[in-house]
Design goal:
7 helices, mainly alpha
Length: 177
């Protein structure tokens, strides 16, 4: 057994757990019925999806990333409709889980820099601060890729002002909170 591969496996499993917890255990709007036995399988399927996505991430484009967010949202919605609140795995939850996992994998040096960042209430407040744009939907209720792109546009503007990418800007902003 190789120690380095065991270390990576441990970290990836931790990254998956942290990402799922951050996306699924929202304070305001529950995602699924926690007492359901299918909840374990839902988490397993999300983990599997994320691992498969990162295996070819080096060849992924930003447009591919948008499609993956929607695809994961739709796939989980179709499969787990009866245990999801309002029968839907929202785009906001999908992006949070996916973008946070990508952030962990990138900062550990396992993948290239992600296109975006995990958008949550802390980053939302930083986007709105000193901006003419006073409203963005709460990430937990976000269920449109067009609304998600508004977050991306605002983050791009903030990042460009300090000569950073969105991922770099969020990392610095998150650490300074």
């Amino acid at each position: 057994m190789e120690i380095d591969s065991s270390k990576k496996e441990f970290l990836v499993n931790e990254f998956l757990m942290f990402s799922l917890n951050a996306g699924l255990q929202t304070r305001s709007y529950p995602v699924y019925l926690y007492y359901s036995n299918e909840g374990i399988q839902l988490k397993h399927d999300i983990k599997k999806y994320l691992i498969q996505y990162t295996q070819n991430f080096e060849n992924t484009t930003e447009e591919d990333h948008y499609r993956k967010i929607v695809e994961m949202s739709d796939l989980i919605s179709e499969t787990y409709k009866k245990i999801l609140i309002n029968g839907r795995f929202r785009i906001g939850v999908s992006q949070k889980v996916m973008n946070l996992f990508l952030k962990y994998m990138w900062t550990a040096g396992y993948i290239k820099m992600p296109f975006h960042c995990p958008f949550d209430s802390i980053i939302k407040s930083k986007l709105i601060k000193d901006s003419n744009h006073t409203y963005l939907p709460d990430w937990t209720m976000l269920d449109s890729i067009e609304e998600y792109k508004k977050y991306v546009t605002m983050a791009s503007i903030k990042a460009a002002k300090v000569n950073l990418t969105i991922a770099e800007w969020e990392l610095v902003s998150w650490n300074r909170r």
